[in-house]
Design brief:
Blueprint: E1 12-21, H1 25-36, E2 41-45, H2 54-57, H3 60-75, H4 82-108, E3 113-117, E4 119-124, E5 127-132, E6 135-146, E7 150-152, E8 170-171, H5 173-176, E9 185-189, H6 193-205, E10 208-213, H7 224-236, E11 240-243, E12 245-251, E13 259-265, E14 270-274, E15 276-279, E16 283-285, H8 292-295, E17 318-320, H9 331-345, E18 364-366, E19 372-376, H10 379-389, E20 393-399, H11 408-412, E21 418-424, E22 430-436, H12 440-452, H13 457-461, H14 473-479
Parallel strand pairs: 1-2, 1-6, 2-3, 6-17, 8-15, 9-10, 9-15, 10-11
Antiparallel strand pairs: 4-5, 5-6, 7-16, 12-13, 13-14, 18-19, 19-22, 20-21, 21-22
Bound molecules: flavin-adenine dinucleotide and nicotinamide-adenine-dinucleotide.
C-alpha cells in the first residue's frame, strides 16, 4: 500500500502499525503526528465529503460561518431578499468547507500516513474490514484507534416514517445547512446546543422559528436567571418557545405542503405549522455496525465505547477517542484525547503521560448572538456544595449594559446578556463563570485558564487588560466581591 489516498482493493489484505478509524479531530491529529514521528499509520474515512470530520464539514465551522452570516443579515435586513441572502450564505459556507476538507486531506497526505476511503467494520481482534462498493480490504494492526464520532438521535415520531428523514421536510443539522432554500417556518425539536444555535441563526436569516423543548426551561442545568436571559434573547429575536412540550405526532400529508406538529404538555394541546422540522435531539456514539463485539470492545447502554482514563478500551491495543466514547461532545475534547493517545503511542519520546483526569475545567460556548459561555459550577451548584466543601460562596453578577468600564459591547451595539463569576471568598478560588456577552467565547478561556492553574479571582480582578476589550469587564465585575 502506498502513502496516498486509496479506496480498498478487492479482497486485499494488509498489516499496519496503527490503524485509525474516522478522520475527525483526534484521528487526523494522531495520524499526522505519528507519521511525522516516522511511524506507519492508516486512516480510514467512510466518505470523502467527511475528510477532516464533523467539525469542519457539518459541525462547528460551517455552522459558525452561517451564524456570522445571520448576524450580518440581522444588522442589515433590507436587500437582497432573505431567500437570496440565505442562498449566498450557504454557498459561502460550502466554499469554505470544500477548502478546509481539501486542506485536511493534504495535511494527512504525508510520508508514513495512508488514507483509505471506505466503511470500516471489525471482523476480529484488531482486524478491520473496509468496504467501498464491491471492494473489500482487510487490515490487521498492532494498535487500533476508534474515532467514529456520533450521529443524530432520531426519535420515532407518530405520523412520520420510521426513519423521519425519509420525509424531505424533516432534517437534521447536516441536511439543513446544505439546503439553499430558506425555510419560511422552521420548527426545531430539541433545545440543546444545536436547537438554540439554529433557532438564533435561522431567525436572523428571516425564518419564523419555533423551538419545542421538553424541559420547562431552556438550558435546565444553568441557573434560572441564565435560562430566563437566554429565553428573553431568543424571544426578542422573534423565536417562539414551546417549552415543557413534547411532539406527540405529525400530520404530514403527502402533498409536500406544510407539516402540522401536534404538541402535548403545557396547559393545552397545541398545533404548530412548519415547512421544515429540524431534529436536534442529541447525537449518539457512532458504533452501530462497527462490529465492536467481534473485536472484544465493550460498549455501555448508550452505545458508547467504554474507556479508562488513558482512553484504552476493554480490548488490548484498542483505544477510543472523541464523541464515540460518550461524555462531552466538543472538538476541543477530541483534540485533548489526541494528546492523551499521542503520549502513549509515542512513549519513550519524552512525552508526559497525560490522562483524562488532567483536563481540568472544560468550558463551552453556545453560539447565540451574543454567545453564551460556561465553565465550572453554576451558582446553584456552588451553593449546594458549599457546606460540604467549606466554601463561603460569593457571586459577582452584572448585566453587560451596566458594566460601565467595558465599552466594547456598546461600541458594537450589542449590550444583551450578563457576566457572572462564582467564587469561594475564603480561599479566593474561582468556582465557575457564566458569561453571556459579546466575545464571551474568548473571555471564558481566560477564566478557565485561571481556574486550571488555581489563580485566585483577585488575579483576574487586578489584571491589566487591553482596552476596549471584553476581558476588562472582569476588573469591574470582580471588584464587586
Ligand atoms: C451542527 C454541529 C455543530 C457543532 N458545533 C460545535 C462547536 O461549535 N464547537 C465544538 O467544540 N463542537 C461542536 N460540535 C461537536 C463537534 O463537531 C464534535 O464533538 C467533534 O467533531 C467530534 O470529533 P470526533 O473526533 O469524535 O470525530 P468526528 O469529527 O465526528 O469524525 C468521525 C469520522 O468518522 C467517520 N466514520 C464514522 N464511522 C465510520 C466507519 N465505520 N468507517 C469509517 N469512517 C467512519 C465519519 O464519517 C467522521 O468523518 C458540533 C457538532 C454539530 C453536529
Ligand atoms: N457550540 C458548541 O460547542 C456545539 C454546538 C452544536 C453542537 N454541539 C455538540 O453536539 C452535540 C449534539 O447537539 P444537540 O443539540 O443535538 O444535543 P444536546 O444534547 O445539546 O441537546 C439535545 C436536546 O434534545 C432533547 N431531546 C433528547 N431526546 C429527545 C426526544 N426523544 N424528544 C425530544 N427532545 C429530545 C434534550 O432534552 C435536549 O434539549 C451536543 O451535545 C454538543 O456537545 C456543540
Amino acid at each position: 500500500m502506498t502513502d496516498a489516498t486509496s479506496t480498498p482493493d478487492t479482497h486485499e489484505s494488509t498489516h499496519v502499525e496503527t490503524l485509525v478509524i474516522g478522520f475527525g479531530k483526534a484521528g487526523k491529529s494522531l495520524a499526522v503526528q505519528l507519521a511525522k514521528a516516522g511511524r506507519q499509520v492508516t486512516l480510514i474515512e467512510q466518505s470523502s465529503r467527511m475528510y477532516g470530520g464533523t467539525c469542519i464539514n457539518i459541525g462547528c465551522v460551517p455552522t459558525k460561518t452561517l451564524v456570522h452570516s445571520a448576524d450580518v443579515r440581522r444588522e442589515a435586513p433590507s436587500s437582497p431578499s432573505p431567500e437570496e441572502f440565505y442562498a449566498s450564505a450557504v454557498e459561502r459556507k460550502e466554499t469554505l468547507r470544500e477548502k478546509m476538507n481539501a486542506a485536511n486531506l493534504a495535511m494527512v497526505e504525508t510520508p508514513g500516513a495512508t488514507v483509505v476511503t471506505g466503511r470500516a467494520r471489525f471482523v476480529g481482534e484488531r482486524t478491520v474490514e473496509v468496504t467501498a462498493g464491491e471492494d473489500r480490504l482487510r487490515i490487521t494492526a498492532d494498535n487500533v484507534v476508534i474515532g467514529t464520532g456520533a450521529t443524530p438521535r432520531l426519535p420515532s415520531i407518530e405520523g412520520l416514517p420510521e426513519n423521519p428523514l425519509e420525509d424531505p421536510r424533516v432534517v437534521t443539522s447536516t441536511e439543513l445547512i446544505d439546503r439553499t432554500e430558506l425555510p419560511r417556518r422552521l420548527a426545531i425539536l430539541g433545545s440543546g446546543f444545536i436547537g438554540l444555535e439554529f433557532a438564533s441563526m435561522y431567525s436572523g436569516f428571516g425564518s419564523e422559528v419555533t423551538v419545542i423543548g421538553r424541559e420547562d426551561r431552556l438550558a435546565p442545568r444553568e441557573d434560572e436567571a441564565a435560562s430566563e436571559a437566554i429565553a428573553e434573547l431568543l424571544e426578542k429575536q422573534g423565536v417562539a418557545l414551546k417549552l415543557g412540550r413534547t411532539l406527540e405526532s405529525v400530520s404530514a400529508g403527502d402533498d409536500g405542503g406544510p407539516l402540522t406538529l401536534n404538541l402535548a404538555g403545557g396547559d393545552s394541546a397545541e398545533r404548530v405549522e412548519a415547512d421544515v422540522l429540524l431534529i436536534s435531539a442529541g447525537r449518539i456514539p457512532a458504533t452501530e455496525g462497527l462490529g465492536l463485539a467481534e473485536a472484544g470492545v465493550e460498549t455501555d447502554e448508550s452505545g458508547a465505547v467504554v474507556v479508562d482514563s488513558l482512553l484504552r478500551t476493554s480490548a488490548p491495543g484498542v483505544w477510543a477517542v472523541g464523541d464515540v466514547k460518550g461524555g462531552p461532545q466538543f472538538t476541543y475534547v477530541s483534540f485533548d484525547d489526541f494528546r492523551i493517545l499521542k503520549d502513549q503511542l509515542l512513549a519513550g519520546k519524552g512525552e508526559s503521560g497525560r490522562t483524562t483526569e488532567d483536563r481540568g475545567p472544560v468550558p463551552s460556548t453556545t453560539f447565540l448572538t451574543p454567545p453564551f459561555s460556561r465553565v465550572g459550577l453554576t451558582e446553584r451548584e456552588a451553593r449546594e456544595r458549599a457546606a460540604d466543601e467549606g466554601w463561603d460562596v460569593a457571586v459577582a453578577r452584572k448585566k453587560v449594559a451596566e458594566l460601565a468600564a467595558m465599552p466594547r459591547p456598546k461600541a458594537l451595539g450589542q449590550t444583551d446578556g450578563f457576566y457572572q463569576v462564582v467564587v469561594d471568598k475564603t480561599s479566593g478560588r474561582i468556582l465557575g463563570a457564566t458569561l453571556f456577552a459579546v466575545d464571551s467565547q474568548e473571555v471564558i478561556n481566560l477564566v478557565t485558564m485561571a481556574m486550571k492553574h488555581d489563580l485566585p479571582y483577585t488575579a483576574l480582578r487586578d489584571a491589566i487588560y487591553t482596552h476596549p476589550s471584553s476581558s476588562e469587564g472582569l476588573n469591574e465585575l470582580l471588584a464587586g466581591i
